[in-house]
Amino acid sequence: MAGNGNGKDPVLVVVQLTGGNDFMNTVIPYTNPVYYDNRPTVGIPQDQVLPFTDSLAFHPKMGPFKEMYDAGDIAIVQGIGYPNSSRSHFRGMDIWHTCEPDKVSTVGWLGRTIRELDPKGESPLTGVNFGVGLPRAMAMPGVPVTSVSNLDNYGLMSGIGAEIQRNEALDIFKEMYGPAVGTGPVMEYLAQTGQDVLTGADMIKVAPEQYESSIEYANNPIAKALRDVARVHTADLGTRIFYTAHGGYDVHANENPIQPQLIGDLSGAISDFFADIREHNASDNVLVMVFTEFGRRIYDNGSGTDHGSGGGAFFIGDQVSGGLYAEYPSIERAKWLNGEDMAHNIDFRGIYGTALEQWLGVEAAPVVGGHYEQINPLS
How far apart are CA 163 and CA 355, in angstroms? Predict the structure, then answer.
């Protein structure tokens, strides 16, 4: 049975950690000497971590996350990935966005999902992205999506301001996808998308006007984006899929302090977001899914960590049955993938399938391109 049993339409919030978040420094195998032997530079000292089992701990900057985990609101998906994982950011993210590891596709998994939720394309607010441009995950010809870079200004734009913002967003989209898919399909898609952006602006401008909250979000990009999600969600405009990206996770150098700052910001923002929507009695139909395009290598490079595989994802929400799902990849040297990586234990398409079938009530196979093992993180 999909959804939340409360009569409200289920809402999925997808948070993309761009650059390849280091899962081993997020959920830390703090009792395993292999971790410390291979990470003399970036390893987090055992006396600083936030243990939640006798072998795993959160990064010390993730206090709010640990509180939510202890309350049973976070399911950790361990060892998520796919066979022959790509180490290219562009291609790796592309595969996650389209569920097509073997060919380049222009159609995103959430684009297909939005079409299922709103088959006639009646509302440009069924799917809303907060950020510049449009993630390929949400792209599908004929599927209207609204993309907002600044909610406070968005509904206030005059015709000309809206036109300029629309053109900037479409230019970025063209640059991102033109080389991979050819300008013909991209231009065709853009022609259909342009008008939806303007329609969405008119409809979404009521959200900031209606919103009041006692929650004070931090002043960082992910907190601002999730506050925007809260403002639109609590305005009850019928949005079913929200998307936002948090960048900067490509930590080849200076991993500490960069990654701690990012996961600290993320942890605080998600905690504030749930406090906010709970205050509005609007949390029981919201599921947050956090993902990244790959994990990082088991050993550090003296300053950071290089691209790897076998990362982690999270499901977060009131309806989540918290805990650990799938298996933490073995970090014993004999089990290293390619002699340097964590192996994946569950296919990301099964995790998408979990959200699609068990939460949104959408059949997974046509969206993700097949049948993949799911987990059961929803109570």
Answer: 35
With 0.85 as the threshold, say if the pTM is over it: yes
Hey, what domains does the chain have and what are their CATH numbers? Answer: 11-368 (3.40.720)
Q: Record the tokens describing residue 38, joined without a space.
A: 């291979």
Give residue 93's identity as a one-letter amino acid code: M
Alpha-carbon span 125 to 200, nearest angstrom? 6
CA distance 119 to 28: 43
Nearest to residue 11, comparing CAs of 234, 269, 245, 323? 234
Q: 260: Cβ–Cβ under 8 A, 6 or more apart, which residues? A: 59, 60, 61
The pLDDT tens digits for 348-369 are 999 999 999 999 999 999 999 9
The tens digit of pLDDT for each residue in 86-129 reads 988 889 999 999 999 998 888 999 999 999 999 998 998 999 99
As a whole number of angstroms, the distance between CA 76 and CA 45 comes to: 22
Contact 306, 53 (CB under 8 A): no
CA distances from residue 161 to 115, 202, 260, 319 in whole angstroms, order as listed: 29, 13, 37, 40
Contacts of 353 (CB under 8 A, 6+ apart): 364, 365, 367, 368, 371, 372, 374
All residues at 6 or more sequence positions from 333 whose CB lies less than 8 Å from its CB, including other chains:
34
